[in-house]
Write a structure and sequence with these properties.
By secondary structure, the protein is an all-alpha fold. It has helices spanning 3-32, 41-60, 72-92, 104-136, 150-160, 164-182, and strands spanning 36-37, 102-103. It is globular, with a radius of gyration of 17 Å. The chain crosses the membrane at residues 6-26, 38-60, 72-94, 115-134, 140-161, 168-187. Keywords: Membrane, Transmembrane, Transmembrane helix.
Length: 189
């Protein structure tokens, strides 16, 4: 097993559980049928979380040559960022549908602050990991600024601004960004 495989396996388990949680929650909602009052914002948040996970997973392959430079503290940052992804994806949809049913609008309204706070915290932890890795290897340092850098600040604003249309616009923009980042890009050989 190569160092990259060894490091990624642990993080992959947590990410796999996060993806499973989104699908299990969706399955429970679909199985509940008419006991679910559907709304668009929670499922959009789940989709954004899922695409964020897929994009991160896809991008990690580019780090494989720098895996021997990963220290314990860098690995701890990576695991913390993956943990935030798990918590964020878990906040998007309710885990249970009680006998009285569930209203997805109310459910996401109750979880939205937590969701956007976790979203805001995730990316800086990941940047810190990449920056630390760039200091210890030939992995390129992150760009000083790109449009993706606005995401954590915007998510932090949405912790306090509870406007559903602003939240939905941000989530739709992030889904578009994640799809654009990955579309047509094969894994490097």
């Amino acid at each position: 097993m190569e160092p990259f495989d060894y490091l990624l396996t642990f993080a992959a388990i947590v990410m796999g559980i996060a993806v499973s949680d989104v699908f299990v929650s969706l399955n429970r909602l679909l199985a509940a049928g008419s006991r679910v009052k559907w709304d668009w914002l929670g499922p959009l948040a789940a989709l954004a979380a899922l695409l964020k996970i897929l994009t991160q997973w896809w991008a990690w392959y580019s780090v494989r040559g720098s895996a021997p430079a990963v220290t314990f503290e860098l690995f701890a940052l990576l695991v913390a960022s993956v943990g935030l992804l798990f918590l964020m994806s878990s906040a998007a949809l309710p885990d249970e549908v009680g006998p009285e049913g569930v209203d997805l609008k109310d459910s996401f309204a109750a979880a939205s602050r937590r969701y956007f706070l976790l979203f805001a915290l995730h990316t800086p932890l990941l940047w810190l990991f990449v920056w630390g890795l760039s200091q210890r290897s030939d992995y390129p340092a992150p760009y000083l600024f790109n449009l993706g850098h606005l995401a954590p600040a915007t998510a932090l604003i949405l912790v306090f601004v509870r406007n559903r249309w602003a939240q939905g616009g941000f989530l739709a923009a992030m889904c578009g960004l994640y799809l654009w980042q990955g579309f047509g890009h094969p894994l490097p050989s």
